[in-house]
Amino acid sequence: MGVRNELFLVYFYAILNFHLYCVASLDFKGFPVILVPGDGGSEFEAKLNKAVVPHSFCIKKTEKYFSLWLNLEELAPWVIDCFVDNMRLVYDNKTHKTSNSPGVDIRVPGFGDTDTVEWLDPTHLSVTTYFSPIVSAMVKWGYTRGKSVRGAPYDFRKAPNELEDYFQNLTELIEDTYMQNNNTRIVIIGHSMGNPLTLYFLNQKSQPWKDKFIRSHISLAGVWGGAVKTLRLMASGDNLGVPIVKPINVRREQRSMPSTAWLMPSDTFWTSTEILVSSPFRNYTVNDYSEFFIDVDFPDGYLMRKDTEHLIHPLKAPGVELHCLHGNHVDTPGQLIYTKTNWPNAEPEVIQDDGDGTVNIRSLQGCLTFQGKQAQPVHYQIFPKAEHMEILVRKDVIAYIQNVLLTF
Ligand SMILES: *[C@@H]1O[C@H](CO)[C@@H](O)[C@H](O)[C@H]1NC(C)=O
Ligand SMILES: *[C@@H]1O[C@H](CO)[C@@H](O)[C@H](O)[C@H]1NC(C)=O
Ligand SMILES: *[C@@H]1O[C@H](CO)[C@@H](O)[C@H](O)[C@H]1NC(C)=O
Ligand SMILES: *[C@@H]1O[C@H](CO)[C@@H](O)[C@H](O)[C@H]1NC(C)=O
């Protein structure tokens, strides 16, 4: 075969591929999607120029941005204090605003793309997969990354009261994606904290805007009324299941996040007679957060709680069609028992509740309160035993999503 034949073949394949491409994009019919991640579900890049570091071996200055979250090397025991000091926020109890640790610049990469919400680390280690199984399935159904499926990562340390810029950008992303997809309404898929965040966002929007741009909201494992787990994090720290991390070593960073205070159990879902935390000295219910924060020696925590507790309380219907999906029958912290030897700095005994392993069942079911409160349907489905993260890889969940996205 001569060179000309090969050239012809290249030419022929180019035409064929172009043709297939056109057919595929003309045939593709699906609602465009925006992915809103949960707590810990966005990547952070940091650049340092610090005067003070916790240990002499911590890096003070970097020329470029480096991956801070999620970067498993940053969590290794010998450098964890450096990480915590870079990741923590500083709360100003006069302005009620947070800022980065002094000398740390943090940015959230990948807004509008899917890469940084599909995997939580830039090298795509399999342990850090996040929205990737859902997006990979969507691509098989004809979706295009960055065009018909897009990500909206954010600074998950903050609660909605400090995310005005983000909500502005999210509005523009939704409108842009709508236009890029032949004026087709958007489906928002949220995970965990991404759902109360989406609710807050939708509560701020006018009904005509929602009617024009939003097809529906698919909520996976939504935290509608908080979770008891956050109280352990505030008291003694939480390694979030990473065995090499000692909870007490990351507590300073975790406490500094107003998003944690926002997700504390709500008094709509827990009564004043239910003990959430018990110490050798007293019991704490939803009505005792002020004393709780004094006793764990973190008074700013109560101010953060006050700044954030009203944001979606009382719950107000989103004004868009909602698909509320969650798991159940997974052991979930329901009550924390501290003794003289572990209060408040070591791990408590945990009395288990029903839930998805992270969020208590009553909070997951919070979306049911929207039924009958809005003109649009509120669909509700439990996926038996779907754990909080596992819900993102479950075949039955992905099949449900497919049905919503491809049914006009
Ligand atoms: C604010 O923080 C300062 C310094 O930590 C502290 O002395 C003061 O009591 C705090 N104010 C309130 C209202 O908590
Ligand atoms: C919002 O978008 C602007 C302009 O692209 C960008 O500079 C800013 O960092 C974004 N803010 C957030 C919180 O995403
Ligand atoms: C775009 O939408 C219009 C009106 O709904 C429709 O007639 C047209 O076929 C659509 N074009 C594509 C490429 O889907
Ligand atoms: C906490 O509540 C339990 C159960 O009601 C009770 O037995 C215990 O004495 C209380 N602890 C304190 C310190 O009041």
UniProtKB/TrEMBL annotation:
Instruction: Report the Pfam families cross-referenced here.
Output: LCAT (PF02450)
Give the transmembrane ranges. Answer: 7-26
Q: What Gene3D superfamilies does this protein's entry cite?
A: alpha/beta hydrolase (3.40.50.1820)
Write out the entry's keywords from A to Z: Membrane, Transmembrane, Transmembrane helix
Any one biological process term the GO annotation gives = lipid metabolic process
List GO molecular-function terms, semicolon-separated. Answer: O-acyltransferase activity
Q: SUPFAM superfamilies, alphabetically?
A: alpha/beta-Hydrolases
Against PANTHER family, the record matches this protein to:
LECITHIN-CHOLESTEROL ACYLTRANSFERASE-RELATED
In Swiss-Prot or TrEMBL terms, this protein is called: Group XV phospholipase A2
